[in-house]
């Protein structure tokens, strides 16, 4: 799950984009990038592997001049984690376009060949986002006039919606025009827009993956970008918007509410925090109903995402809630780290059990989700070693049995701990005395209760139903094959040759 941001400002935007990326860091820890447009209408780019704070040093910030810019933080789902696939991407024709993408396309391979044959465009990486950018560029290229009108841009996006499949929330900039943002016709990935009025005169606009980015920059939340909708803000701050999809429908990703998004974000009219509170309440009620004879002494969250739900479970069960684990604040999110070996090591470095809360007790541990089981396996081992008597585990999300193809890196079912296992078998595999999962209908209600406009949610990891066409056994075989191929390429973290060298001393 990546994070995107775009700002059309009245003054230099580099610091604001940097700040926005730091609060979106929980969506991707692998790479970061910013591109701005300077006064001479040139792109200024910095991107590399690493956290935002490591990627941008003073000399890069000096390079990023201009009042218009976009930024990206990456959690790879396609291609590799090579710095050459860090975003934003750039093409020089037509006009000069830069684009950043959150999501994952599901027909990338077919499109890669088509783009070459029909539009004579060369794709130089294995990134789906580079394909997306070239399709957008080739649609814009069909208009012979300069400058493009808002309608030209919206027509191009309507075509893009018909050509590409999958999930995408994008921000882009076109030289000589301004900022463009669009969201896929199912609204799988999130995107919001906000504004800030400067000196009672001019309006600055900002689009971002999550509303929390608007909050910290004092932008006023306007609304979600609708599924299929496109926004065009000219470089002098004129805003246009249009529904560009032929049959848009709300199918937002349910996993944003379970794990990905920050709790203080408002997404599709739904508070992420409130969703997690409701998840705790519904799961607490299920435990009270189904585990009448189970003797629980204390409820303990597995930090950090599960804390809000765990507190509600404790309240409903009328048991003490304790912070039994200490989290190392310098270790990031383990699930979005690349490679299983690194994830395993990081769980141990990140969490340590406080013996006093476990010794001789029957504990109910709570996690927001159990995906590969990396966290729960390690945690269970740890709490046993500090003397827990019985260890029960509750997951605020249902069993994850199916791969994700829309921007969460879990493309192979066999990597999932719940794949082909019953609840009892999962409990045995991770070493829990008892295990309970949220029901999918309850999880869906946690979100829908807050916005009746959402009739459906994208729940494929739980129910195996994919909303876009062509997701079948052949698709997954090809994906698995690709992934195996990519694993054999040694990671190259060298980012020296990625920048656009147009700025003299920087
Ligand atoms: O079963 P797994 O494959 O281990 O994945 C699930 C775990 O990973 C996530 O935690 P993470 O450390 O990424 O972030 P958090 O601090 O926000 O909870 C999630 O909250 C679960 O704890
Ligand atoms: N998680 C995401 O949104 C990833 C975006 C894009 N598919 C990439 O791999 O760079
Ligand atoms: Mg966690």
From TrEMBL:
<dbReference type="Pfam" id="PF00156">
    <property type="entry name" value="Pribosyltran"/>
</dbReference>
<protein>
    <recommendedName>
        <fullName>Amidophosphoribosyltransferase</fullName>
        <ecNumber>2.4.2.14</ecNumber>
    </recommendedName>
</protein>
<keyword id="KW-0658">Purine biosynthesis</keyword>
<dbReference type="InterPro" id="IPR005854">
    <property type="entry name" value="PurF"/>
</dbReference>
<feature type="binding site">
    <location>
        <position position="367"/>
    </location>
    <ligand>
        <name>Mg(2+)</name>
    </ligand>
</feature>
<keyword id="KW-0460">Magnesium</keyword>
<dbReference type="GO" id="GO:0000287">
    <property type="term" value="F:magnesium ion binding"/>
</dbReference>
<feature type="binding site">
    <location>
        <position position="305"/>
    </location>
    <ligand>
        <name>Mg(2+)</name>
    </ligand>
</feature>
<dbReference type="InterPro" id="IPR017932">
    <property type="entry name" value="GATase_2_dom"/>
</dbReference>
<keyword id="KW-0328">Glycosyltransferase</keyword>
<dbReference type="InterPro" id="IPR000836">
    <property type="entry name" value="PRTase_dom"/>
</dbReference>
<keyword id="KW-0479">Metal-binding</keyword>
<keyword id="KW-0315">Glutamine amidotransferase</keyword>
<feature type="binding site">
    <location>
        <position position="368"/>
    </location>
    <ligand>
        <name>Mg(2+)</name>
    </ligand>
</feature>
<comment type="similarity">
    <text>In the C-terminal section; belongs to the purine/pyrimidine phosphoribosyltransferase family.</text>
</comment>
<dbReference type="GO" id="GO:0009113">
    <property type="term" value="P:purine nucleobase biosynthetic process"/>
</dbReference>
<comment type="function">
    <text>Catalyzes the formation of phosphoribosylamine from phosphoribosylpyrophosphate (PRPP) and glutamine.</text>
</comment>
<feature type="active site" description="Nucleophile">
    <location>
        <position position="2"/>
    </location>
</feature>
<dbReference type="GO" id="GO:0006189">
    <property type="term" value="P:'de novo' IMP biosynthetic process"/>
</dbReference>
<dbReference type="GO" id="GO:0004044">
    <property type="term" value="F:amidophosphoribosyltransferase activity"/>
</dbReference>
<feature type="domain" description="Glutamine amidotransferase type-2">
    <location>
        <begin position="2"/>
        <end position="236"/>
    </location>
</feature>
<keyword id="KW-0808">Transferase</keyword>
<dbReference type="Pfam" id="PF13522">
    <property type="entry name" value="GATase_6"/>
</dbReference>
<comment type="pathway">
    <text>Purine metabolism; IMP biosynthesis via de novo pathway; N(1)-(5-phospho-D-ribosyl)glycinamide from 5-phospho-alpha-D-ribose 1-diphosphate: step 1/2.</text>
</comment>
<dbReference type="InterPro" id="IPR029055">
    <property type="entry name" value="Ntn_hydrolases_N"/>
</dbReference>
<dbReference type="InterPro" id="IPR029057">
    <property type="entry name" value="PRTase-like"/>
</dbReference>
<dbReference type="InterPro" id="IPR035584">
    <property type="entry name" value="PurF_N"/>
</dbReference>
